[in-house]
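Lay summary

Proteins are chains of building blocks that fold into shapes. Our project writes down both the chain and a compact code for its shape. Here are two examples, one after the other.
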Amino acid sequence: MICFSLTCDNGHSFESWFASNKKFDLLQTSGHVLCPGCNSSNVTKDLMAPPVRASRKAKKVVESQPMAASPDPEVAQAIKAIRDHVEKNSDYVGDNFVKEARAMHDGDSPHRSIHGQARPEDAKKLIEDGVPAMPLPFIPRQKTN
């Protein structure tokens, strides 16, 4: 069995399993491969990368092993400068970042500079919705007041 990534002429993407490449071609030419979103039979295979396994001889990577022996001092200093600037010039809102950013964007809250945490999927949704937000190259420290 082989799984193909497919797209119909209406732009719907989906996956389906076939006994072989030859079976897919046979079903497609006979009009039996249909898009589950719109029932279009004009379906094409997408470019796919096969799964690749590491060689048995490959050296195992220990998860706790650091990526680099020591960070570049110039990069570390630049990140520290960014962090200091953000923390000095914005309000820490913690886990309420998504809620606060959306409220400001929607006009329900006054605009101000904020920083905090957001789950990746929530941050992506903010950006897709046109809410100005960007990831920081560090994890913000919690402000203690």
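And here is the second example, written the same way.
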Amino acid sequence: MKALIQHVREARVEVEGKIVGQIGRGFLVFLGIMADDTEEDMDFLIDKITNLRLFKHFDEEADDGKGKENYFDKSILDKNHEILVVSQFTLCANTNKGRRPSFDKAAPPDQAKEMYNKFVQKLKTTGLTVAEGEFQAMMNVHLVNEGPITIQLDSKER
């Protein structure tokens, strides 16, 4: 399972001109599901995404008395920000041969949809606000990437 996480000030997904999911400050998570992914892969990514320290914290008790911002000090759970999950099978692309990407290792649509839905449901059990795109739809994703901070995760690379 692969995830591309973007630290956003805001993000939304539109399908046919209608907003289907939107968040304020938090993570936009593009999720790619491989054919050999398991629930263990899912649990690993959920734990990693919710505990990665990618947010800043203002330390009012800095040595200089003026305070300072500490980047990469707080997790999304610490900040209670939001998550928008968008399925993106193109993260599963293999571009090693030729000029056209191969998606032969991506999960078939039925399997991917089931895993995607489970991923979203498990993510919601963290207590965070979780919005989502529409599986297998042509989506327009709008975002304000803050930082910019973008992190790539792969459950197979532990």
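What can we say about the second shape? The chain has three helices and eight strands.
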